[in-house]
């Protein structure tokens, strides 16, 4: 920071050394500050920078002073230009690629995120361009002012900068002296230099020019737009109205499982020139959407399987109670036989329902879908309850076979008694 002031001091020492070796007659005008021209009113001095003739001894000394000042400014310009050039080379070095082991790391990192109903880049290329533009201006403004010892000063400007770069006093055609122009600050000299300006102009649009590549990436993500453009509840409702089979549920869930796999296989990042867009957030959001879709179909499947299971359990419980009654008379026999008949008639239907119910819950487990824990416990006992009912039905059927002779004999005796009673009644009626 003190380099320029050190150079200015060294130049003053050099000039003093030169003056020390001059003859007294040659020192005219060299003892004054800023080495004023000896002939400022001469024709050669008019409209010259600083109103100097550039031929007298003070002008020669001042010219040497300016020479070193100009070299310092050129060094600053070169430094700024090289710094900006380094950024420009990095910005223009790479095109789109997805190699995570690339030798040149990205200058900027951002995210691709899902903001329903769109996929966007955060920050966007425009935001990054604005940030780059601000960075360039900050770099240039380092030649403007800074704080030193609680005072705002320009640490790069020489103390004589205002005098060195004072524009010439202009005279109008009528001979009137025009108001003096303010000298250009070091910041303006550096920032308006043609080499610096050329790089700044290039950098001002280097990121925005990559929008086409960014659009292609976003279009690639559009293949998943059905995940957020459609409502899961509405689609599942329409799906259930078609009375789907278990295979239809499996096809739907498998479809979203495949989408989830495709999402997880997306590259970890996309390089758009100097910008690396990370896909962690978009992948997480899209996977969440696929899981929501799978869970929506899983919920519908669980509700259907649970309703079918409840119907079977009610059927089994009802028949268990009817078969558990004691057989004391013919009414009990008729009730038991009716229960056995219902079991025989419903056997195929129940067997064809229990299998899909168990497969439904097995499929939900396979895909990691959540369902009621009570249903998980009940489905394990469904087949057992059905087999137990079968066993009880067999026991009741065997018991009916055993008691058949007794009830048959009682029935025949009852019939004979009834016939006798009818005959007696008829005879008595006829006698009257």
UniProtKB/TrEMBL annotation:
Q: Which Pfam families match?
A: DYH2-5-8_CC (PF25007)
Q: Which InterPro entries match?
A: DHC (IPR026983), DYH2-5-8_CC (IPR056759)
- All copies of the Dynein axonemal heavy chain 2/5/8 coiled-coil domain together span 299-392
One GO BP annotation of this record: microtubule-based movement
GO CC annotation, single: axonemal dynein complex
GO function terms (MF aspect)? dynein intermediate chain binding; dynein light intermediate chain binding
Concerning PANTHER family, the annotation shows:
CYTOPLASMIC DYNEIN 1 HEAVY CHAIN 1, MALE FERTILITY FACTOR KL5
Name of the protein: Dynein axonemal heavy chain 2/5/8 coiled-coil domain-containing protein
Native species: Desmophyllum pertusum
| Lineage of producing organism | Eukaryota, Metazoa, Cnidaria, Anthozoa, Hexacorallia
